UniProtKB/TrEMBL annotation:
Record's protein name: OsmC family protein
Span of the signal peptide: none
One Pfam assignment: OsmC
Region annotation Disordered: where it falls in the sequence: 1-25
Classification via NCBIfam families: osmo_induc_OsmC
Coiled coil residues, start to end: none
Length: 144
């Protein structure tokens, strides 16, 4: 398979705390979405790198699980994943220390043990999990 390249961009003006910026994606889904100190470290308007990583991780893991299920001859009726990213101040700055994935899924015909095994494989092998230098946990619930 050929290499896949995706891109994003950021623009910033001003200092760290008083500056403002915006981020955009190649697809245009994000186009000049505002971000800044208050959106990142407080509850200000705009996005921030950490919530974008969390959303990317939730999406990547969920799609990876869909492929794992398909490989086992199963199809999810629905899967809902939340990713809660934790960033802590460490010596020299901040670090993403953990991502807690929480999944609720309805997969007709899937046994609990199979579901847990496939979910764990998806967690370990989705590209976003592989790039993060953080603890990744998973709470996977198979709904009846």
């Amino acid at each position: 398979m050929a290499s896949i390249t995706r891109s994003g961009s950021a623009h910033w003006e001003g200092g760290g705390k008083d500056g403002t910026g915006h981020v955009s994606t190649q697809s245009g889904v994000l186009k000049e979405a505002p971000y800044g100190f208050n959106a990142r470290f407080g509850d200000g308007r705009g996005t921030n790198p950490e919530e974008l990583i969390a959303a990317a991780h939730a999406g990547c893991f969920t799609m990876a699980l869909a492929f794992q299920l398909a490989g086992a001859g199963l199809t999810a009726e629905r899967m809902d994943t939340a990713a809660k990213l934790s960033m802590e101040q460490v010596e020299g700055g901040f670090r993403i220390v953990r991502v807690a994935l929480t999944l609720k899924a309805k997969v007709p015909g899937c046994e609990e043990a199979t579901f847990q095994e496939l979910a764990a494989t998806a967690k370990a092998n989705c590209p976003v999990s592989k790039v993060l230098n953080a603890e990744i946990t998973l709470e996977a619930t198979l709904e009846g």
